[in-house]
Design goal:
By secondary structure, the protein is α/β, with parallel strands linked by helices. Helices cover 45% and strands 15% of the residues. Strand 1, helix 1 and strand 2 form a beta-alpha-beta unit. Helix 1 crosses helix 3.
Length: 220
């Protein structure tokens, strides 16, 4: 299968945890051995948010805040890529597609200001016509409402595209914290991208999602 793996920055730890990154490399190697091709998109996590805050305090504009966050995500991507033996982090979708065609694996971070790496992963999934996108997040999956705010929110094992838009759609705001950003949600629904959201604190959940086991939330 052609798989886009989106590793949420929030599960990489604060400060970034090398053990977590190494365990993702191990999981990816297992999936490659099973014959899958994998395009990985890594988020900036806490480091990106610290740099956004520093840039904001310096009076720098949104675009510059985003640019430092993108740089941070690319460092995270490089670390994972180094462990896999593919340390060059592409900065365009075109390069990502040619690398994954050649090497069967590629690791990228952010792409351009004004989006998040959820949207980057969605753009890769669209251009590559992936079979599955997996988001390794810091929640069990998609809930009826934000479980950090609503104690009675329920985990949804299956989510239709209209449900996804109803729960997580809306407008982009910079630095937004959501399980999947609203711009990505709109694209996923419009292009009917198959997506599974899992709890990424256990990287093995990614393998379960790839194998089609019932884990987290499946959209499609
Ligand atoms: P990320 O997409 O790196 O977040 O965006 P994350 O750390 O993985 O977060 P979770 O785990 O999904 O919650 C962080 C910020 O980086 C900028 C945006 O400001 C975004 O809010 N960014 C990221 C861009 O501007 N462009 C990109 O292509 C990626």
């Amino acid at each position: 299968m052609k798989i886009v793996l989106r590793i949420g920055g929030s599960i990489l730890g604060s400060p970034p945890d090398g053990a977590v990154m190494a365990s993702y490399a191990t999981v990816v190697e297992k999936a490659l051995k099973e014959g899958h091709k994998i395009a990985i998109v890594v988020g900036g996590g806490s480091v990106a948010r610290q740099y956004i805050e520093a840039a904001r305090k310096m009076g720098l504009e949104h675009r510059d805040q985003d640019l430092v966050a993108i740089a941070a995500s690319r460092v995270n991507a490089k670390l994972v890529g180094m462990k896999l033996g593919f340390p060059d982090v592409p900065t365009t979708i075109g390069t990502t597609l040619s690398r994954v065609a050649r090497d069967h694996v590629v690791v990228m971070g952010g792409l351009r200001p004004g989006i998040t790496t959820d949207t980057v992963a969605t753009l890769v999934a669209e251009a590559w016509r992936s079979d599955l996108m997996v988001k390794a997040s810091n929640q069990e999956g998609i809930y009826t409402a934000d479980p950090r705010v609503h104690k009675r929110a329920q985990l949804l094992p299956k989510v239709s595209y209209p449900m996804l838009v109803a729960i997580l759609g809306g407008d982009y705001t910079p630095g937004l914290h959501s399980i999947i950003d609203p711009v990505a949600v709109g694209r996923i629904a419009k292009n009917r991208i198959k997506l599974t959201v899992v709890n990424g604190s256990n990287p093995e959940n990614v393998l379960l999602a790839i194998q089609g086991d019932i884990v987290g939330s499946t959209v499609g």
